[in-house]
């Protein structure tokens, strides 16, 4: 009788534990089949991105839920481990500083060229900017598809968001073309050749260091935001008297805005609906789009931090018993290293099953 009671108590406690599991999609977000101590720790203590709203300014803050307690061990081991961690973090900070310095130098160089060539031709400058601005998303998707082909990577959210970003930039480009920004042969020639060079440079950079590539894209989008903001402040009254281009009206006020919501990674889907009354409203929306791109590129610099806005919908509540396996890696070096580790683990598991 006591054995039966004990078994019933254990079963009831187990049922209670299962019933109180929170129904949240967060438990699926960092699943990774690639065996790695580092990735295992990320799965147990996921990194979460939150958005703080203070005085209408949005900041993406990365909060880590790692426990503050250190594993048991002797004092000498803890001191040695802290020294290794501090030296590793110091090296990483130095690498990040070098990457960002290179990106800022490259961005400033391009800005000086554009300032010299287009100081009095706004629409032509915007045409060149939009031709260049959509290139990184093509490069990101190309590299990620390559990784998928080798089985190194599988995270659908990145592909969805980056495609939505390229779709948004394409419509910016169509708007500038309708406004006559591409009327000169020289402008088309310059924009297209810069775009080709920029594509291969971004592919190489993204394969080497995704963090560096995302920061460089953030610098480009930040410059685009500042350019449109200055233009709106300088010529706002004039823009309010002009009609909006037809392509802008169709894109921003069309029936299906799924892709428009997809790159708004700091907002809930359907929470922002553009209003187009005149050309001023068009440029305000373009400027706001560039701000969203900046936030997304900033969030991407923390590996594994990007989530599609539509991933948080109620559909995940019906998938609590499912497991979403996602392969992941940081750059081509990490991908190759994890591929060898995965093969070794699979061989070990196969040997154990055959015993």
TrEMBL record:
Listed Gene3D superfamilies: Alternative oxidase
Cofactor(s) the record lists: Fe cation
Domain of life: Eukaryota
E.C. number: 1.10.3.11
Similarity section: Belongs to the alternative oxidase family.
Cofactor binding annotation: Binds 2 iron ions per subunit.
Gene Ontology molecular function: any one: alternative oxidase activity
A Pfam family that the UniProt record links to this protein: AOX
UniProt entry keywords in alphabetical sequence: Electron transport, Iron, Membrane, Metal-binding, Oxidoreductase, Respiratory chain, Transmembrane, Transmembrane helix, Transport
Catalytically driven reaction(s): 2 a ubiquinol + O2 = 2 a ubiquinone + 2 H2O
Places the protein is found: Membrane
Record flagged with keyword Oxidoreductase: yes
GO cellular component labels: membrane; mitochondrion; respiratory chain complex; thylakoid
UniProt source species: Hibiscus trionum (Flower of an hour)
Protein name (database record): Ubiquinol oxidase
Metal-binding among keywords: yes
Signal peptide (from-to): none
Main localization, broad class: membrane
């Amino acid at each position: 009788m006591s054995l039966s009671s004990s078994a019933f108590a254990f079963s009831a406690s187990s049922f209670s534990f299962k019933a109180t599991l929170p129904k949240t999609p967060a438990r699926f977000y960092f699943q990774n089949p690639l065996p790695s101590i580092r990735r295992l720790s990320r799965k147990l203590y996921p990194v979460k991105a939150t958005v703080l709203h203070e005085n209408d300014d949005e900041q993406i803050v990365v909060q880590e839920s790692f426990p503050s307690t250190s594993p048991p061990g002797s004092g000498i081991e803890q001191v040695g481990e802290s020294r290794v961690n501090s030296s590793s973090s110091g090296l990483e900070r130095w690498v990040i500083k070098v990457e960002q310095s290179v990106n800022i130098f490259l961005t400033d160089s391009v800005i000086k060229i554009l300032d010299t060539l287009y100081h009095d031709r706004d629409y032509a400058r915007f045409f060149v900017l939009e031709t260049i601005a959509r290139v990184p998303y093509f490069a990101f998707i190309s590299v990620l598809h390559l990784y998928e082909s080798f089985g190194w990577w599988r995270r659908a959210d990145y592909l969805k968001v980056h495609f939505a970003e390229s779709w948004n930039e394409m419509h910016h480009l169509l708007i500038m073309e309708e406004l006559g920004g591409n009327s000169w042969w020289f402008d088309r020639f310059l924009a297209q050749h810069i775009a080709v060079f920029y594509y291969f440079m971004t592919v190489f950079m993204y394969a080497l260091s995704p963090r560096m590539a995302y920061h460089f894209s953030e610098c480009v989008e930040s410059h685009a935001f500042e350019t449109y903001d200055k233009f709106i402040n300088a010529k706002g009254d004039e823009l309010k008297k002009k009609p909006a281009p037809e392509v802008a009206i169709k894109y921003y006020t069309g029936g299906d805005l799924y892709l428009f919501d997809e790159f708004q990674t700091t907002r809930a889907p359907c929470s922002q609906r553009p209003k187009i009354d005149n050309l001023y409203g068009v440029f305000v929306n373009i400027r706001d789009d560039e701000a969203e791109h900046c936030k997304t590129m900033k969030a991407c610099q923390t590996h594994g931090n990007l989530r599609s806005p539509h991933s948080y919908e109620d559909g995940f509540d019906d998938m609590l018993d499912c497991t979403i396996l996602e392969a992941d890696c940081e750059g081509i070096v990490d991908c190759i290293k994890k591929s060898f580790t995965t093969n070794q683990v699979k061989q070990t598991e196969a040997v154990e099953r055959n015993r």
